């Protein structure tokens, strides 16, 4: 059996705009997906996923090689676990040349699903890493990130940037602009997450922004303005200016709201964080529901969020310096 883990991430700046070639800066956090893989002789793929979400939702199921679940589980969880794992295993077969290889794959994750913390990227990165190593092949982080990106892109009908998968594979703060992915120096950031217990549909949200951008010039301008914020954010990160980073996160959230991807619960949590004295707060990821990210070195934001209606969970997240981890 071979085991790997990979971290989730928050977007400090730039989600959605990154889809149109603007830069984005995600940052890996110490919330991980862990994947254990064991080769099977019969060429089948079996996926076991337990406790895939923070909100106590536990699911256990198996899936056959053609992706059919062998018990009745919600469609979204079948999609989340089996499609991504199927795609990851396809990449593993391609890169290793072991076309007929089958696996038992067990996933554990403390990253809520579809909530803007990069759960699918973390599962895919860890699964590809563990399964290739199970076959005796160790991929460099850049190749691992690329294979994981191809998986996400395929499952999400071509609507994926390289941001999540690169960040999860390499760890730390990263900058992604089109195909260009690199690591960034980042100060120690006092990251606080608020989670509304829900999830957004990334595909639908991305399609919504695309339609808005085609219909209204303001939306195209907003996407460009987010790119400007990201460039300012990079300077603030390089200078270690946490207050300025927070201020720019506030601007970024406003522009994401203008693009229609926030929600009442995300806005409520963002304002609760700001009222509690956070340097800044914004939604993270596709939006529609899920998580916000705030910067606050004190306990105030966490405390305020824990009393905020609609906030199901709040926690502090350390920056994950390491991306994929190869476990014993
Ligand atoms: O919600 P997440 O973690 O899947 O992030 C989506 C980020 C988008 O920019 C909206 C899409 C993408 O692939 O970059």
Automatic annotation (TrEMBL):
Keywords: ATP-binding, Cytoplasm, Isoprene biosynthesis, Kinase, Lipid biosynthesis, Lipid metabolism, Magnesium, Nucleotide-binding, Transferase
Active site, renumbered: 164
Domain GHMP kinase C-terminal intervals: 235-301
Main location as per UniProt: cytoplasm
Enzyme Commission number(s): 2.7.1.36
Pfam families reported for this sequence: GalKase_gal_bdg, GHMP_kinases_C, GHMP_kinases_N
UniProt-listed GO biological process terms: galactose metabolic process; isopentenyl diphosphate biosynthetic process, mevalonate pathway
InterPro entries in the cross-refs: Galactokinase (IPR000705), GalKase_N (IPR019539), GHMP_kinase_C_dom (IPR013750), GHMP_kinase_C_sf (IPR036554), GHMP_kinase_N_dom (IPR006204), GHMP_knse_ATP-bd_CS (IPR006203), Mev_gal_kin (IPR006205), Mevalonate/galactokinase (IPR006206)
Pathway the protein contributes to: Isoprenoid biosynthesis; isopentenyl diphosphate biosynthesis via mevalonate pathway; isopentenyl diphosphate from (R)-mevalonate: step 1/3
GO molecular function, one term: ATP binding
Gene Ontology cellular-component terms listed: cytosol
Positions annotated to bind ATP: 112-122
Catalytic activity: (R)-mevalonate + ATP = (R)-5-phosphomevalonate + ADP + H(+)
Localization: Cytoplasm
Root EC class: transferase
Superkingdom classification of source: Archaea
Cofactor dependence: Mg(2+)
Segments forming domain Galactokinase N-terminal: 5-38
Domain called GHMP kinase N-terminal: residue spans: 84-172
PANTHER family, alphabetized: MEVALONATE KINASE
Biological role: Catalyzes the phosphorylation of (R)-mevalonate (MVA) to (R)-mevalonate 5-phosphate (MVAP). Functions in the mevalonate (MVA) pathway leading to isopentenyl diphosphate (IPP), a key precursor for the biosynthesis of isoprenoid compounds such as archaeal membrane lipids.
Subunit organization: Homodimer.
Family of the protein in this entry: Belongs to the GHMP kinase family. Mevalonate kinase subfamily.
Protein name in UniProt: Mevalonate kinase
């Amino acid at each position: 059996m071979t085991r790997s883990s990979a971290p989730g991430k928050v977007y400090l700046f730039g989600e959605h705009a990154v889809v149109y070639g603007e830069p984005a800066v995600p940052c890996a956090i110490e919330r991980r997906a862990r994947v254990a893989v064991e080769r099977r002789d019969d060429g089948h793929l079996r996926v076991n996923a337990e406790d895939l979400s923070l909100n106590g939702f536990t699911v256990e199921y198996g899936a056959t090689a053609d992706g059919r679940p062998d018990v009745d589980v919600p469609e979204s969880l079948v999609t989340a676990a089996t499609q991504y794992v199927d795609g990851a295993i396809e990449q593993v077969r391609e890169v290793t040349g072991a076309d007929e290889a089958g696996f038992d794959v067990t996933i554990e994750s403390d990253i809520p699903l579809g909530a803007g913390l990069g759960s699918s990227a973390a599962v895919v990165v860890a699964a590809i890493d563990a399964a290739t190593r199970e076959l005796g092949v160790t991929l460099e982080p850049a190749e691992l990130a690329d294979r994981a990106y191809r998986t996400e892109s395929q499952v999400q009908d071509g609507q994926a940037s390289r941001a999540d998968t690169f960040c999860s594979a390499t760890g730390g703060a990263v900058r992604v602009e089109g195909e260009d992915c690199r690591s960034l120096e980042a100060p120690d950031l006092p990251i606080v997450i608020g989670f509304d217990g829900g999830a957004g549909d990334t595909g639908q949200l991305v399609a919504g922004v695309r339609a808005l951008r085609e219909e209204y010039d303001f939306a195209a301008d907003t996407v460009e303005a987010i790119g400007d914020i990201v460039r300012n954010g990079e300077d603030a990160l390089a200078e270690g200016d946490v207050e300025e980073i927070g201020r720019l996160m506030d601007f970024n959230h406003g522009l994401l709201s203008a693009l229609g991807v926030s929600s009442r619960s995300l806005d409520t949590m963002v304002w609760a964080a700001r009222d509690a004295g956070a340097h800044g707060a914004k939604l993270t990821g596709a939006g529609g529901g899920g998580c916000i990210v705030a910067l606050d070195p004190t306990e105030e934001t966490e405390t305020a969020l824990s009393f905020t209606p609609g906030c199901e969970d709040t926690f502090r997240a350390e920056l994950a310096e390491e991306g994929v981890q190869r476990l014993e």
